[in-house]
Amino acid sequence: MCCMMIGSVLGSGIIILPPLALESSGEWAIVGWLLTSLFGVAFAYLFAKVGTIFPGEGGVASSVAHAFGPSAKRLAAYTLAGAVLFGPAAVLLTVVEYLPPSLLPDTSMGRAAIAAGLNVVCAGLIISGLKNMSRFAMLLATAATGLLLAGSWLVLLFHTGPSVPLPPFDGESFGYTMLLLFWAVVGWEVVANFGGEVINPRRTVPRAAVMAAIVIGVVSLSVTAALQFGNLPGQTGSGVAILLQPLFGSMAPWLMGVLTTGLCTITYLVFVGATARLLAHLSKESGLPDILNRRNKKNVPWVVVALYTAVHLIQYFLFGLEIVDLAGLVAISDGFFLTNALLGTLAAFRLFTKPFPKAVAIILSFAILAVLTQSHWQVLVALGVMSTFCFYRSRKRLAKAV
Description:
- This protein has 15 helices and no strands.
- The chain has a single domain, classed as Amino acid/polyamine transporter I.
- It is mainly alpha-helical.
- It is globular.
- The protein has helices at 2-10, 13-25, 29-53, 59-68, 70-97, 108-127, 134-158, 171-181, 201-229, 245-248, 252-282, 302-320, 326-351, 355-372, 377-401.
């Protein structure tokens, strides 16, 4: 179970985030990762406890509904849907960034075209009803984790440069880095869904979750430290791929390209496929257009998948024009993910009765709220509109019932 959690949470974040954090905060990136790792352990513990209260597929959504009612549950669903409007495009653009140098296009539009082609393939796989990806995803995540951990330690042991003192602290850039790094915490919400599938969940689920969070934290800190302090002569490749050079030499970019393609593709399939089904289900009860629930013979809501594909293709075009970038897409997506997580932690605070999990829930809620304030103002406006719509619909239905 611990390995399953590592595979579902680590995903493509270990590829995307370390270079972005270094670019945003420089030498302070390692501090940001340390805080993110601590948040990860707290999130894992909290959502595992939620899984013991509401075992089964409902997970965090069930806790939000029990704590705040159906309108809050719909808001949680809409924020997840908003995050998936932007996050998957960043995931597939990462695949392009980790292509071997000989295959990497020189222009932004060329890179966008490759990501768009991969997006169309992924959408076709979702519509075809592809199943049983979990074992393949876990295998890829385990392989990437082992290779990156080994490469990072080799770099830290034998290829470190002279130590550099920390520069003056820049609160604005560090806050933006924390917003980006929240991507590493995304995924712990699914821990609650494991509660109904294990024996003695009250003991097994929290222990497995905390253990998985510690492993993910060690891997993330090792990779970031190696990128930040490493000094490899004659580097080939870019970003995290550099860490495989001591092990595989000139073959490192090719191996990293394969691992990145696999991890990012599965991340896209899982998030878009799950969110498409969620929106199709909500169209029957929350006022969304009925057309969103149109399904093919494989019971896949193809209309939602097509809409997501269209939005992502537009984003690739904007990336090609250099209007948006990878970090911007991650930051926008994280704003919606943060709101989703905030609803979960507030629900946990309201539902828990014991002091320790209640304290963890309120501390995390304040931390999430602090990071959420770093989001783009457009994201905050969109979240305000979503909240107003959900609660207005709820009041309107209550008035009709009366």
